[in-house]
Structures are given as C-alpha cells and as structure tokens.
C-alpha cells in the first residue's frame, strides 16, 4: 500500500507539471483516481462513476494476456464505451 501511494503521488506530480506546461495553450481538466484490486474492475467502476465517454488504456506487454485476455481486450469486449488502446 505504501509503494502504491508513493507511485500515485509521483504520477500526480508529473500530471500536474505537464498540465502547467500547456495551460497557456490548452485548457486541461484532469482528475486522478486510484482503485485497489483488479484493474479491469477499477476501470469499469471509474468509467461508470465518471460517466466516461471513452476509455484509454495502455497495451499489455505480458505474454499471458494473449491467452487469458488483457484489461484492454476485456474492456473492448464489454462494449460499454469506445476503447482506445495505446502502445
């Protein structure tokens, strides 16, 4: 839990810095949420609670996900939102 909190704090700082750099060019609205447990369920919960128009996730690099299915594939199959998968 402590490591997760440290990682989250680091990500928040990076997002805040990036948003600050582009504030005169773009109006960036962002929120940072953390969910413990299964990533798929966390993303579904977040998308539902935030009434998301779309979900953007990174592609999995783990070989086992080609067999079992990655979070991205599970989100696409759920068909509840448009899903963009980035490398």
Tell me what you see in this structure.
- This protein is mainly α.
- The chain has two domains: 1-34; 35-87, no CATH class.
- It has helices spanning 2-21, 39-49, 65-68, 71-78, and strands at residues 55-58, 83-86.
- A two-stranded parallel sheet has the order 1-2.
Give a quick account of the main beta sheet: strands, pairing sense, barrel closure: 2 strands, parallel
Helix content: 40-55%
What assembly state would you assign to the polypeptide chains in this entry? single chain
Q: Can you give the mean pLDDT? A: 84
Percent of residues in beta strands: 5-15%
Count of distinct strands: 2
Extract low-pLDDT stretches.
Answer: none
Distance between the termini: 27 Å
- Alpha-beta classification: mainly alpha
Total number of helices: 4
Rg, nearest Å: 15 Å
Give a nutshell description of this structure:
With 87 residues, this protein is mainly α. Helices cover 49% and strands 9% of the residues.
Keywords summarizing the entry:
single chain, two-stranded parallel ribbon, 9% strand, 49% helix
Question: Could you outline the blueprint of secondary structure elements for this entry?
Answer:
Layout: H1 2-21, H2 39-49, E1 55-58, H3 65-68, H4 71-78, E2 83-86
Parallel strand pairs: 1-2
